[in-house]
Write a structure and sequence with these properties.
Order of helices and strands of chain B: EEEHEEHEHHHEHEHEEHEHEEHEH
Distance between the termini of chain B: 11 Å
Order of helices and strands of chain A: HHHHHHHHH
Structural class of chain B: alpha/beta
CATH topology of the largest domain in chain B: Rossmann fold
Protein name (chain A): ABC transporter permease
Bound molecules: adenosine-5'-diphosphate, magnesium ion
Radius of gyration of chain B: 24 Å
Number of helices of chain A: 9
Shape of chain A: globular
CATH class of the largest domain in chain B: Alpha Beta
Oligomer: heterodimer
CATH architecture of the largest domain in chain B: 3-Layer(aba) Sandwich
Strand content of chain A: under 5%
Largest sheet of chain B: 6 strands, mixed
Largest sheet of chain A: none
Number of strands of chain A: 0
Family (chain B): Belongs to the ABC transporter superfamily.
Strand order of the largest sheet of chain B: 6-7-8-3-9-10
Distance between the termini of chain A: 34 Å
Protein name (chain B): ABC transporter ATP-binding protein
Helix content of chain A: over 70%
Strand content of chain B: 25-35%
Number of helices of chain B: 11
Number of domains of chain B: 2
Keywords (chain A): Membrane, Transmembrane, Transmembrane helix
Shape of chain B: elongated
GO molecular function (chain B): ATP binding; ATP hydrolysis activity
CATH superfamily of the largest domain in chain B: P-loop containing nucleotide triphosphate hydrolases
Structural class of chain A: mainly alpha
Helix content of chain B: 25-40%
Number of strands of chain B: 14
Amino acid sequence: MKWLNLLKGNIRKEYIELKRYLPNTIAMLLTFYIIFLGMFAGIQIVGDPNTADANIQYVIVNYVFWFLAIIVVQDIGWQLQIEATQGTLEQLSMSPMGIWKIMLMRLISTVLVNFLIIIALLYLSMLTTGQWLNVDVVALAPIFILTIMSMIGLGFIIAGMSIVLKQVQAFLQILQFILAGLTFVPVSVAPVLAFLPIVKGVDLVRSVMIDGTSLLGIGFGDFMILVFNAIFYFVIGFIFFLYCERVAMKKGLLAHY
Amino acid sequence: MEPIIKIQNLKKSYKKRKAKEVIQAVKGISFSVNRGEILGLLGPNGAGKSTTIKMICGLVKPDAGTILIDGINNQDKRLKALNHISAVLEGNRNIYWRLTVRENLEYFAGNRGASRKEVAEEVASLLEKFRLKEKENELVNRLSRGMQQKLAIAVAMLANTDVILLDEPTLGLDVETSYEVRELLRSVASEYNRTIIISSHDMDVIQDICERTVIINNGQVVTDDKVENLLRLFEVRAYKIALGGLLTERQLLLLEQKFPHYTYIPDTFQSSLEVDLEKSEEIYDLFDILKLESTVVESIDRKSINFEQIFIKIVKGEAEHEMAQSS
Ligand SMILES: Nc1ncnc2c1ncn2[C@@H]1O[C@H](COP(=O)(O)OP(=O)(O)O)[C@@H](O)[C@H]1O
Ligand SMILES: [Mg+2]
């Protein structure tokens, strides 16, 4: 019950802030859309007409995932930076629920609340380009959930770093390009890339949405890699976060000073 | 009665960033707080008050020492101990400026695992009590500093814990608001029967609200006593004497040796002399010095001394005050 109240409270806050700062939210979506249009135009003008359709489909999937990754992974970093200076982090840290639970619920709330936006963006891009992708919910749901798990693991790592390292802003800026790399690079470049977070997930999503693979059509090995990544990055992120929390308590970084 | 908070030999040093320097913020502090008590932690800036409070709240890990909260060691069972503790730390920053008054209360309750329904009654009563009812839907960044501080205290109250810690609760408030917040704290303490620990560098605040004070200086406890005892103790010790003439060089020299912190205002008709005695018997030594030259004593008064002067004396180490038993 307490977990549920914690989740509800955080969903509510996320929603209130998106709604209250609607102009910001809209500006963010507009930026996303304009950049997308730019890529779309680029592919049509300079790209090879024979592969244009495939390229556009590819960009749609990657770009939507990139957006999601930024929101989940990078945002928690910014939030914590702000909360550390504003003194709300110390208030959260004094909750008998434990900070990690609050962070986990926040990450989940972010995903849930932004999910609708993601869907809207997806359909907007499909509508704009006239490229209708295969939205096979049965196949996409498990891939999506497992990919989100590894994203949340990354989110924990970034959250931990943001608490311990005060000068993390520069890194957060670069992070969006790292995330772009993880979402845009195809596994076919080098098979080991599949073991990086997110990469395998996006790869499978592409094969469902673009090539029309069904859930049963996904290879067992591919699926196991996805499961392994989800658990691995989630656990690593979680442990890293707890470690950072301990360091922060030693150095007195949880509280404003 | 078992104290609700028991702190033993607490130590903490911070490493300065980059530089190899180490700051010993807290150097072995011990004190206890009884259930239902309002305790003041008093000390100048940099004394180690905030660090002590943060260690009690589990935000900073001590290098050594133990903190028992209702018998729970807050290092072994941090989260369990946090069930008994809530706090407002320095500088009314502990709330979300982009949320409204009500949203803040509800969000923080949620983060402690309570639903909006569960706290609805309590929220309504706190809004009433803290006179924030008309502002409940106002964004926090539009509130005055005083209101923000009141909201931060209300958030801590809503956690419904046995102990509330307030670090410099009146810092940065104007005089009027400071009085309002103090008034509120007094009434909260008596009505809700909470144990309250207040830190401040302002003795006025402590004298106004607290029954007992632990004075900290340079990371150590210098005094632990009831506020009224401190006042009484120092009242007895400070004397103001009117003399019918001037003191001689010899007398001044002896005074300097015996009472190094005396004040002397010479005047051919009526000089005044103020001395603090460490023990009441020392009054005889003073009279001996005056007798030497048969100086006329016109009047002797106990000097009225306020808490601020006591504090300054204690902190500067001018007065050695034994740690009196305070129960
Ligand atoms: N997180 C920190 N990192 C480094 N030094 C700190 C930190 N917090 C406090 N200090 C230092 O420790 C000493 C005690 O500070 P503090 O506990 O805030 O005292 P007070 O609250 O009584 O003013 C000061 O010298 C302060 O500069
Ligand atoms: Mg302080």
